[in-house]
Amino acid sequence: QVHLAESGGGLVQPGGSLRLSCAASGSIFRFSAIAWYRQAPEKERELVAIVGIHGNTNYGDSVKGRFTISRDNAKNTVYLQMDSLKPDDTGRYYCNAYPERLDWGQGTQVTVSQ
Fold first, then answer.
1. What local confidence, expressed as pLDDT, does residue 30 receive?
2. 3-state secondary structure the chain
3. CA 111 to chain centre
4. Which residues lie closer than 8 Å to 40 by C-beta, 6 or more apart?
5. Running along the chain, 114 residues long, what does each successive block of 10 average in pLDDT?
6. C-alpha–C-alpha distance, residues 106 and 61, integer Å
7. CB 78, CB 95: distance < 8 Å
8. pLDDT at 25
9. How far out from the chain centre does Cα 27 lie?
10. Beta strands 108-112; 10-12: pairing state
11. How far apart are CA 35 and CA 51, in angstroms?
């Protein structure tokens, strides 16, 4: 069974940056496309970014040009570099396979506020 552990969240001012990490146990990780999702209070979970097995990427419209997803298969880790953060980016961030099929981790909270 694959376990996911997200980290790197925090409180940041608008315009600031954060780098999230998603560490996974289990070799299935490197054979899967991996995505970051986020969920704001009282909103449904939304797809933020995807990185394919070979490093190809796709982004949600709201984060294009500001977020960068990457992966290090040797470390079973996926990263999300978030720049030019906005208050609307506030939420709990999760990683999972894409399409999602693994048990969800605890996520990591990102709060963008003055």
1. 77
2. CCCEEEECCEEECCCCCEEEEEEECCHHHHHCCEEEEEECCCCCCEEEEEECCCCCEEECCCCCCCEEEEEEHHHCEEEEEECCCCHHHCEEEEEEECCCCCCCCCCEEEEECC
3. 14
4. 88, 90, 91
5. 91 98 83 94 95 95 98 93 97 94 94 96
6. 25
7. yes
8. 85
9. 19
10. parallel
11. 6
- Please state, in angstroms and rounded to a whole number, the distance separating the CA atoms of residues 85 and 11: 11
Phi-psi region of 91 (alpha: psi -120 to 50; beta: other; left: phi over 0): left
Euclidean distance between CA atoms 20 and 95, whole angstroms: 10
φ/ψ of 56, rounded to 5, equals: -65, 145
Q: What are phi and psi of 23, to 5 degrees?
A: -105, 135
Nearest to 24 by CA among 102, 112, 109: 102
pLDDT of 36 reads 98
| β pairing state of 108-112 and 46-51 | unpaired
